[in-house]
Amino acid sequence: MKKNVTFLILFSVTMGFCWLTYNVSTIFLLKPQNSRINKPGQTDPVIEMAEHNRKHNTNPTPKYHVVVTANDTPYSKWQCRIMYYWYKKVKDLNGSDMGGFTRVLHSGRVDNLMEEIPTFVVDPLPKGVDKGYVVLNRPWAFVQWLANATIEEEYVLMAEPDHIFVKPLPNLSKGNYPAAYPFFYIKPAENENIIRKFYPRGLISDVDPIGNSPVIISKSLLKEIAPTWMNVSLRIKYDTEADAKFGWVQEMYAYAIASALHGVKHSLHKNFMVQPPFDRVLGNSYIIHYTYGNEYSLKGELMYGKIGEWRFEKRMYLTQPPPRNLTLPPPGVPETVVRLVKMLNEASANIPGWEKL
After folding, report:
1. Where, by residue number, does the polypeptide cross the bilayer (predicted)?
2. Which of 14, 33, 56, 344 is the most buried (most CB within 10 A)?
3. CB 124 within 8 A of CB 106
4. In a 10 Å sphere around its CB, with 0-12 CB exposed, 13-18 middle and 19+ buried, how is residue 280 labelled?
5. Residue 174 backbone dihedrals phi, psi, to 5 degrees
6. How far, in Å, CA of 242 to CA of 265, rounded?
């Protein structure tokens, strides 16, 4: 009973703070923030990722903390184990600015991966608040983690369980710009009529075409944005029109809107990650994001929207991890898909007790 009362007090205080933050943001933060908004002659925030970004990185302490939010389902667990395996493989290689790692577990209770993966347990939203959209727990998890955890690094990489690090990732944030990946399906200009409900003034171009992951951002800036991000996420979910329009990406829009309310623009890095099967070439990318299904014929032809003769679809493994030694794709399949399967196989072969969760 005491724990429930404590949680309700914490949630009420946080929600009150979120409401205050959002409304103050709406009134004041829509004014240009001179320290964060581009001026004529300054670098365009939409930039390609290149080595000179690292050479000219002015961050005094560029190390960032890798953080991923997760629940305690088998589906989430096996992805977190894969991700953590590859984090450890690349963390200390040349070119890496990776610091510590935390899985923020928003189940409200410990699980059997606590000793394997550094984990910080936070509470989920009260029952029914998310209306079945479990992703709403993500901003709430960040609010709690930022308020209560000890984080040594000055920067944070917000990542997801289905991210695999292909190579060492430097701190890509540039000056006062956090670093983010531009998603082709986040289109603020095309959805201005809805976004104006939550971002009533200011240029619509101030809302970046991003989600909250992957994003490298200073810890202090994320502490400012997170309560607003949570508040906007809830407002979108409870707005019938916005909920229907934005669907499963609504919490991504919420982060972009919250950032704009705080006058924050992101530098956009197209090579931050690849998303097979649509990104065919790995190039200089740092992360493979395997959110989409990979369906191919035995001739190596994409069969998207159909069941492939060869396939890897992570949603096939909701209740148990994929088996070890997955069959490699047939000839002709893009290198991103081949690399993904090889990396899954290496991780599962080397993680003790892989098939037990």
Report:
1. 7-30
2. 344
3. yes
4. middle
5. -125, 115
6. 23
